[in-house]
Amino acid sequence: MRFQLIAARTAFAALLLAVLAGSCAVGLVRLGLLTDKGGRALMIPATGLGLIALALALLWLRSALARNQGEGKRMGLIALVGSLVFLYPPLSYVYCGYSELPIHDATTDPEDPPQFVALAKIHPANSRVFDGTRRIPYQGVDARYKGQDVTVAYALHDKYPTLTKPHAGLLVSPQKAYWRCFQRVKNLGWTLVDASEKDMRIEATDKSFWFGRISDIVIRVRPAGAIGSRVDVRSESRDGGKDHGRNAARIKEFFLQLKL
User: Fold this and answer.
1) Which residues 6+ apart lie within 8 Å of 175 measured at CB?
2) Fewer Cβ atoms within 10 Å of its own Cβ: the N or the C terminal residue of the chain?
3) Continuous segment of H or E residues that includes residue 149
4) How many alpha carbons lie under 13 Å from residue 21 in its C-beta half-sphere?
5) What pTM value is reported for the model?
6) Which of 90, 113, 106 is nearest to 210 (CA)?
7) pLDDT, tens digit, for every residue of 172-188?
8) Torsion sign across C-alpha atoms 152, 156, 208, 218
9) What is the DSSP letter of 127?
10) Long-range pairs of 195-199 with CB within 8 A, sequence gap ≥ 24
């Protein structure tokens, strides 16, 4: 009985400390008082505390079911459910770091990617030059050539075939496609930086949910066939060698919206 109650209370306390540490990491990075690297470092002990909370909550649950007793059920259940919710973002981030390509720049056209113009005036830590010939280790649970080095262009084609194939052809004029893309940018909540109907180019930025990591986005519309148009998108993280699949996911979300 005493063990069950202690496990519930300790799990609840560990969860509170984990949430406090995680909130400090996110808040300090968002306020500019801590670097992104520092925020990630602070999330390590926060995640550790979350794992401790989950382990103790499971011990409480095992004892409660075995003894058919409900001592500490409120704190135990809060710790169990709360730790699962708390651990999902950091653990999924770690998983995506393994399963996604080790890149920071994704595009639908690796051979001829859209180029930044207005955003080119900003000089982030990552280069503005998209190098499709750069070789990277092909990794992830679905990697066909796991452990081998392949070019970025090949990896994008093989990993995200629905993005890089000419699926973005629209049976509308480039002008109509351009304004449809413009509206989707607004619908997605991206920050519009520049829009040129003459050049059929839209540039915008987007921030990650937790740490507010900025990615720059450029959309290019070109004629395709007699009456159609093709839309290509590029999304690049301003810093960090890996984007954990965020840029490819952002492009997928854009095209899902474009089809609506």
Assistant:
1) 197
2) C
3) strand 149-151
4) 21
5) 0.84
6) 90
7) 889 999 999 999 999 99
8) positive
9) -
10) 196/117, 199/117
